[in-house]
Amino acid sequence: MQILVRKLFQRVSHKQATRFRAYCTKKVADIGQPSSASHPQLLKEGEMTPGITTEEYISRRKKLLELLPEKSLAIIAAAPVKMMTDVVPYTFRQDADYLYITGCQQPGGVAVLGHDCGLCMFMPEADPHDVTWQGQVAGVDVALDVFKAEKAYPLRKLPEMLSNMIRRSSVLFHNEQTAIPTYVNLEPFQKAAKNGKVEDLSNVTHELRWIKSPAELKLMRESASIACQALLQTMFHSKTYPYEGMLSAKVEYECRMRGAQRMAFNPVVGGGPNASVIHYSRNDQKIKDGELVLMDVGCELHGYVSDLTRTWPPFGSFSSAQEEVYDLILETNKECLKLCKPGATIRQIHNYSVEMLRKGFKEIGILKDEGSSSYHQLNPTSIGHYLGMDVHDCSKISYYRPLEPGVVITIEPGVYIPSSFDVPERYRGIGIRIEDEVLITETGYEVLTGSMPKEVKHIESLLNNFCHGMGMESPNNTRAASIR
Questions:
Q1: Distances (CA, A) of 358 to 41, 370, 413
Q2: Which residue among 57, 136, 209, 466 is the one 20 to 30 A from 142 at the CA level?
């Protein structure tokens, strides 16, 4: 157990912390996003974004063109800036397809890919007022020199130039979910759509993104490792600070201190009966002695996300009823992991999990019979999903598709018993999910979140023998200080 703790209970070292805030003393060009010149602590020479080389981005474009018909044109828009209030934007996150093809992490651009033009980027132009308030942005020169576009133009030239490109094309592809009026409202685009010559590009890009490259898998392993370390620190923290909001803040702090740019999604921190709400996000309740807490978390590292869930008793011990249900979910998790291999499908693994849980719920006494329609009230979710640049990655790829080496999925059996559900009282309000991130390999699988404990005896031992308050003020003292 002590070896496990030494491996997992890793505080952020001074060296780790300082390398994420190192400064460059040389005067280098600001291109609106990190480069190897401006951020050598993040990017190596030859990388366009951290961990992904310029050559890999160029290869992605070539592979996309190979999947597109002759005389076709692909149009990909950057994600827009979304506003919280009239002057306060939400934190910007780039559209995954646009980032995957261009390497540009900034809003406002439109990329066009075709057999004749190669990659053509239309870039926003920042006026002095924008630069003063928001900083530099990548322009035409950066598109050519850094993103390695064959052609680049100011965004104001898009209506004329893209209209001509569309007229010369036999079919158009674009992402229907991220389409913007800048090009959709063009007369040639409207005409092509009316004639049935506009198709969804995500059917093609998801095909490319489904199998991860070695460089992508390295980032995903690192993202998973950060999330595991952060969640373990949060587990230790939970006994002293059993508040959903504090645990949410703690896990985000630990992820960011280890280099993550953001959380992959708002952490789910469900204490007691809140754990039976599958995507609970209020995170505003105190967790009582005797209750479990379910935490579903993930972080994003340079465009690649992680996703895992653990459920535990913050005060150190599972009740007999909680342990009974937990053991069933854990056994289902382990058996489903064994099915992860090339040729299997998420749907097959899901069906196996349903059979296993139906049988187990009946034996425990949660279901009256295995065929009960009530099962879907207890677990309406899929056993898992694809994972990559998005949390539910490559949504155009069917769950009936045979898995291949390089695909990353989640395995996440669970049970969500509402307090009002007709079961013995000792089971009411219990919510349990155990989620792991799994890479399909040539010979089977690799659990990317395998370092995060999930056995009852390990969890109880860690909570009771190694838990401490991490040097923070107590909640009562914090509250008292705030009202003086």
A1: 51, 5, 12
A2: 209
